[in-house]
Amino acid sequence: MSAHHADKLFQPYQLGDLSLANRVVMAPLTRNRATPGTDAPNDLMVEYYRQRASAGLIVTEASQISQQGQGYIHTPGIYTNEQARGWRRINDAVHDAGGKIFIQLWHVGRISHVSLQANGAAPVAPSAIRANSKTFAASGFVDVSEPRALELSEIPGIVADYARAAEWAKEAGFDGVEIHAANGYLLDQFQKDGSSHRTDAYGGSIENRCRLTLEVVDAITKILPPGRVGIRLSPVSPANDVSDSAPQAVFDYLVGQLDARKLGYIHLIEGATGGPRDIAPFDFAALRKAFRGAYVANNSYDRALATQAVATGAADLIAFGRPFIANPDLVERLRRDAPLNALDVKTLYGGGAEGYTDYPALTA
Ligand code: 8OZ
User: Which spans in 221-317 are helix H?
Assistant: First the structure.
């Protein structure tokens, strides 16, 4: 690949009315370092995001919209004043460094544990089907708890929690929000027929299974301009024990609806989350073609694959996850084709500065 060919990845990109310095996105990454007790962002998190502000766009780690939406210990929230104040400090630091930042809004649904829920309640889901998955709680890695099916009457409250979180995000100074509708969490549980056996207006047909996601989109785009809203999808990922009998039809329909709503971007995990890109046949290019906003591609991209995807127009932006953990200056390293730091998997989830803010940048 010629140097000229690689250039486009490092050129500015106009995401609606937002000017990104380059086409490299920091993917959302769960790190479990929020302040115990409040789940508010803290000084250590300010430093971590500040170090990575040369990304064209940062998408924050998934952040719960309510206590009910939490599934892992020490993940940050975006539903209290104290949490919003913490995020404001991160946003100021990223903006001072010339970066742009969206917060990823998260409800885990059934991927939770009673110890993380108010009064030890059962987590909620479209249907009372326990996932074959684990989470980490105060006691370490544990099986997720048996969920209870949401009552039809509870669904407006969940949509309202997303809307309130978007209000907090606006108040905290984010450039936009990304709706987490991937990886087997609440919205993905509704979208896919392996985890939704509902027979009401939120289950059964593809339209019904996509209804909650689209109601969340509609509620959030009353608070933020649609161009400042993105969504993350993982049509064929088995992450957190979800599956669908006809994912192409589900996601063709959903992306058509998102296009009609003029969302800023769709963010696709191509293949199995953090795993093989070719786990199942799926036409991601069809989604790209059906959507007039930006297409953000993710999953095991390296420099060559990213360069090619942007140069050919297969994607507008490329989101890098694991490489951004270990390389705060990933954009500069890719630009120079410099070696990357190795990832320390022992310090991914929880802990302090080690394996978080101590990965070195290039020195010259
Ligand atoms: C790894 C560990 C915990 C959560 C996702 C938010 O997969 C996550 C997550 C990843 O989207």
Answer: 247-260, 284-290, 303-312
